[in-house]
């Protein structure tokens, strides 16, 4: 019996959520005056993502009696490339953050690794996902990076890698 691709995708998502929860558990808890700390937003997003993973597993199990074409696991090279690139982005963000913070000459903020890695990730990922207009790609990459830095660095006062 072949496993439905939704079940496989859901299990992979749940594994990523488990790794994320393990990593997030190492963040400091909120202080006595705060109800939300540095781990609150990651736990919320991991919970929502895990819920989506569970829904994928349930959907895949419900579809197991569907036709053979939908049960086979066809690996799309674009999707695989995107996920590999996403994992590399996560590692590069931390690595660049450590590298930039160690270089006092650059004068970049503490969010330097996040800024550089996210900008490069979006500039490469958007064309992989089907966007073709260069101006749109640049505007979305710069705008998204800027909004995230302002939201987390400015509003939430969270230092990004």
TrEMBL record:
The chain crosses the membrane at residues 40-58, 79-100, 112-130, 137-160. Residues 8-161 form the DUF1468 domain. Keywords: Membrane, Transmembrane, Transmembrane helix. It comes from the Bacteria. This is Tricarboxylic transport TctB.
């Amino acid at each position: 019996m072949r496993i439905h691709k939704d079940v496989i995708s859901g299990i992979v998502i749940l594994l990523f959520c488990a790794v994320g929860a393990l990593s997030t558990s190492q963040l400091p808890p909120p202080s006595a005056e705060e109800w939300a700390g540095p781990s609150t937003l990651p736990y919320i997003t991991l919970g929502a993502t895990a819920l989506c993973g569970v829904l994928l597993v349930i959907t895949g199990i419900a579809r197991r009696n569907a036709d053979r074409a939908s049960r086979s696991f066809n690996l799309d090279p674009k999707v695989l490339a995107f996920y590999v690139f996403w994992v590399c982005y996560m590692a590069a963000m931390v690595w660049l953050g450590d590298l930039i913070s160690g270089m006092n000459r650059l004068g970049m903020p503490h969010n330097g690794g996040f800024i550089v890695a996210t900008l490069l990730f979006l500039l490469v990922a958007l064309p992989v996902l089907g966007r073709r207009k260069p101006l749109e790609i640049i505007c979305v990459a710069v705008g998204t990076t800027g909004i995230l830095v302002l939201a987390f660095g400015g509003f939430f006062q969270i230092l990004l890698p």
